[in-house]
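Sorry to interrupt, but I need a hand with the structure work. Please put the record directly below this note.
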Amino acid sequence: MPDFPTEPVAEFTKIESIFIRQRNCLMIRADFTPIFTDYYLHLMDINERHPENLDTPLKDLLAVLSLHLVARPWAETIAWTANLRAPRVNFFATGSSVHEYITGRLFTTDVREPDRNFLYSQTSTPGNKPRNSTIEVETSDPLQWINQFYQQSEQRPGRAFRLPDDHYALIAAQPDFDQEWLENLSTESVCELLDREQSKVLETRKFRFSCGCSLEKILPTLSAWKDKPEELFGEKQTLNLQCPRCAKKYQITRNDL
């Protein structure tokens, strides 16, 4: 787990949506230091530590999903699950533009081994059935996943970039975009993009690493055992539950049930 920044860290990550004039592309960018700091504080709280080969992709997934949320309409809640063969793991992230949060976790036990790598997406809006999509992904890099996702599910090009010092950017095509310009972008050119192109900030959103889970919200999932606690507890007096979204652990008693 890395050292925390010595300078004060903002309470939230400010995500800017910027229109690039003449290129007809949307640039969504942010410094994810606040979100990553809270993510590591959360890992300390639940007493978990991820190996580097899993920790970095999960952070990347949190970042690119946050950027994607800002590129989408306000009312959406989106969940992404990547089911990989090697390493056999599920990466999970979910976020909401309405509540401006992002959270996620790893699943490393009891993971179904797929014959290929898949990214599953579910988009929910109030009053409507969730929209689901699935794409096959070729790598273990979330920045490549979102590039493929834009081509296949968004039906428009989109490219994500990992920039220095925990900064990330997503460039999403709009109608009549400059295809050659977008295809030839590099990490270096994205860093200098606003100095070279005419642009306009459209909006700014503030995201935090937060799940909002609680024992009260998790207990209803056990309602089927309310009248038969002996089947659930056996001889135990307490059980440990884990939030499926952030892996926070909760202990319940028979009285809680």
The mean pLDDT is 92.
